[in-house]
Write a structure and sequence with these properties.
The protein is α/β, with parallel strands linked by helices and 310 residues long. It is built from 14 helices and ten strands. Strands 3-2-1-7-8-9-10 form a seven-stranded parallel sheet, sandwiched between helices. It has a three-stranded antiparallel sheet with strand order 5-4-6. It is globular and about 50 Å long. The two termini are 21 Å apart.
Length: 310
């Protein structure tokens, strides 16, 4: 990696929802060469309704990624607020985010879903590009202890005792621009976020998995700030990494970024066993909530990319 790449690396961040948005906001302070690859399995809320009505990709997580990359200029910030506006009414628009409707409308006008997202990105001055991890909407299914199979992201996300997850269709088409971004990156970032429904799904798409395994990029995992809940209830931070290894044993991890509050002997041992290095830095928000602080996480990313080890 050259000195220029170290200072402003090309970074691909994978995930969905609030976890991916947290990484993206932090990464805008570190690089201007950013690509978000977003899960497309959401079947709840506004996204699920639009997906069911129009057969389109669920737009919600893509919208959140675009607004996380938004420019800080007042005009672009105002457009980001417009995208995030959510209707509250007694009618059919209740619960819909305006940005979800705009994205869905643009998909009807454009034959290329990524071009449509690029158009929204230009509107908000996005400091990077947002792309779906597959060209078709996906369904997440899980094997749950003492229950059997549970289907749908909305259901899996709130189901305890998840043992394994998979995607249907199992081998969806992936845009070549997504794969090229992974192959050409200096760093790939996974997490934080819902482990089974936002982080792991990227490793289950065959073409994307192969790109993640073979890319010369280095790979970083950002750990969550609290013990698992819902789908990951009862899982420690070390367990999260163990699940990651179980679902993708051929994926090499180079760096694991953790808040000191989650450090344990088991986590240290798991990171060492993976052949990775741990960076323990205070990345929790100052309000004490289990939310990553934008600037603190940016500092941790800089140290990770520069090769600083705790």
């Amino acid at each position: 990696m050259t000195g220029a790449e170290t200072a402003r690396p090309s970074v691909v961040a994978l995930g969905g929802g609030h976890g991916l948005a947290a990484s993206l906001r932090a990464l805008t302070h570190v690089s201007d060469q950013l690509t978000a690859i977003v899960t497309v399995a959401d079947d709840g809320g506004s996204s699920g309704r639009l997906r069911g009505e129009f057969g389109c990709l669920p737009p919600g997580d893509l919208r959140m990624a675009l607004t996380a990359l938004c420019s800080q200029a007042p005009r672009e910030r105002e457009w980001a607020n417009v995208l995030q506006h959510r209707f509250a009414s007694a009618g059919p628009l209740n619960g819909h985010a305006l940005g979800n409707l705009i994205i869905t409308g643009l998909w009807q006008l454009h034959t290329d879903s990524i071009d449509a997202l690029d158009q929204i990105g230009a509107l908000v001055g996005a400091r990077g590009r947002v792309m779906p991890m597959a060209n078709v909407p996906l369904e997440i299914a899980a094997r749950v202890r003492d229950v059997g199979a549970v289907r749908g992201q909305a259901r899996v996300a709130v189901t305890q005792n998840v043992e394994e997850v998979w995607l249907e269709p199992s081998d969806p088409p992936v845009d070549e621009r997504v794969l090229s971004a992974v192959r050409e990156a200096d760093w790939v970032v996974l997490g934080p976020g819902s482990w089974f429904t936002s982080v792991l799904p990227h490793l289950m798409v065959s073409d994307l998995h192969d790109a993640l395994v073979t890319t010369p990029a280095r790979r970083a995992v950002v750990m969550n700030l609290s013990a698992g809940s819902g789908e990951a209830a009862g899982l420690s931070q070390a367990d999260h990494l163990a699940v990651l290894e179980e679902h993708s044993p051929d994926l090499r991890i180079d760096v694991v970024i953790c808040d000191p509050s989650v450090r344990s002997a088991a986590l240290d041992a798991r990171v060492e066993q993976m052949g990775a290095r741990a960076i323990y830095r205070p990345v929790r928000g100052t309000a004490g909530q289990a939310v990553h602080d934008e600037l603190r996480l940016a500092t941790a990313f800089r140290e990770a990319f520069a090769g600083i080890v705790s």
